[in-house]
Amino acid sequence: MTTTTAELAVRTAGLRKRYGDIDAVAGIDLAIRTGEVFGLLGPNGAGKSTTVEILQGHRTRDAGDVEVLGSDPASTSRAWRAKVGIVWQDESAPAELTVRETVGHFARYYPRPRDPDEVIALVGLEEKAGSRIKALSGGQRRRLDVALGVIGGPELLLLDEPTTGFDPAARRQFWSLIRQLAAEGTTILLTTHYLEEAEALADRLAIIANGRIAAEGTPVDLRRAHSSEATVEWTEADGSPRTEHTQTPTRTVAELIGRFDGEIPGLRISRPTLEDVYLRLTGQESVR
Amino acid sequence: MTTTAVATRKTAEERLPRAWNLGLHQGALELRQFFRQREQVVFTFAFPIVFLFLFASIFSDDVQGAGITASQLYVPAMIAAGIMSTSFQSLGISIAIERDEKVLRRLRGTPMPPSVYFLGKIWLVLVTGGLETIALLIVGTVFYDVDLPGDAAGWLTFGWVFLLGLTGCALLGIAISSVPKSGRSATSVVVLPFLVLQFISGVYIAIDTLPEWMLNLGALFPLKWMCQGLRGVFLPESAKVLEVADSWEYGRIALVLGAWCIGGLLLCLGTFRWKNRRDS
């Protein structure tokens, strides 16, 4: 890789954190480039949140080097916090204030905030701008969390499971929000246990299991690297279905063309989906 | 594009918002939140007024040789307790809850200077403590024959006792908010010591009837001295005979309350946590 440190928004090497006897994070190396959307994908308890909390500067680490926007998050300044937007997994906002009051007040903490009304519109809460927060639904509160995360116009946005509990429509709406922020040049690190979410949003992703990175790359790379074996299915002349697992599906098909005159009945060639790869890498294959 | 962004960010660092102005906004927001919780408002203000009414109505006889009634004695006592309840008790409980509900963690994730949070709480306590005191003074003067100070010196004394007492108690409240492990246990952790202090500082029970060791224990904390200072402001000179030293001891009051302001500040700086213990 030719990427220099200066182009990296986040860099960790040998990151470790133990809780009692459990290695929550057991040696994680990350290199997130400026401007990219990076997905940290893994099942619950894999170490995603701990990793992100260390990057935010809100959790101590036991070992390893960490650099976020050029600083160690364990000892940061107000100027650094102005450049990092955070959306936690479990948030709560002042129930008695309205959406506009809250977003407008948080804007005051930052040196170069975005326009509060524009941010409220960005997360789709215009109609709720005058409502007290206690009157919002769960999904609306989550969008408010995102609004508070981006109100300072961050260079880096850290999102911990932002869409947990969203219905499918709200999730799609949220995805377009993330794409818009990414298009504006914000570097985004997002954790999720939804594979389709990582695949839809992330330029690159790391699959994390038992505190370690099991695989890393673009969604296409991951699928290619971990799914060289294809499955060829067809129906024999006597009507019996056949399945063959092979590294060379083209050769199999060439043989079939020779055997069948014209069309091969029921021909189907498939590669494992990213989900198959994910489940295998995180040791959850048996659940299928 | 990238270079201009970096350049503008550099100048932005120098323009991080100033703490004092932000603190005013924070205070306005705290007050707005407080007054929108109607139940909380009613009970916070009603509590000392109801207690004043009960005690001053039950014990209303003349106090022998002091030229005052027991009812009059309860007015400054309840004002002191009201100041402590709006500062120590309400901050101790509300900050513990805010910490538990991750409100503090979220603030810590922004470039807000920590002093802004405390400034906001100070404004909240000043306004609510002031309103509580006014309400109790109205009840005291209208129903229980308490006279307001006749001269500027009296009001000046009242002013510094109020401010030093409120500040010391607010800082103690911020400090105690770090003790409870969760927001749920905060009320019990904060209310018990407050209740004990009220008994041994001459709020519910007149100081001349308390055992000496209790008086000595109470004298370590600000409430006893706030009560004493306010008695000096609102009771006639003849009531001095009830005091331990036969005098209002303003110098000592200023010394103890001032010491609590400084000590409380150091205690807060040393112990304040933005997260629950299990979250670090």
Automatic annotation (TrEMBL), chain A:
SMART domains: AAA. GO terms for molecular function: ATP binding. InterPro entries: AAA+_ATPase, ABC_transporter-like_ATP-bd, ABC_transporter-like_CS, ABC_transporter_ATP-binding, P-loop_NTPase. It comes from Streptomyces polyasparticus. This is ABC transporter ATP-binding protein. Pfam families: ABC_tran. It is a peripheral membrane protein. Keywords: Antibiotic resistance, ATP-binding, Nucleotide-binding, Transport. Residues 10-235 form the ABC transporter domain. Its main location: membrane. SUPFAM superfamilies: P-loop containing nucleoside triphosphate hydrolases (SSF52540). Residues 229-248 are annotated as: Disordered. It is found in: Cell membrane. Transmembrane segments: none annotated.
UniProtKB/TrEMBL annotation, chain B:
It comes from the Bacteria. The chain crosses the membrane at residues 41-60, 72-97, 118-143, 155-176, 188-207, 250-272. The keyword Membrane applies. It is found in: Cell membrane; Membrane. Keywords: Cell membrane, Membrane, Transmembrane, Transmembrane helix, Transport. It holds the Pfam family ABC2_membrane. It is a multi-pass membrane protein. InterPro entries: ABC-2_transporter, ABC2_TM, ABC2_TM_bact-type. Residues 39-277 form the ABC transmembrane type-2 domain. Belongs to the ABC-2 integral membrane protein family. This is Transport permease protein.
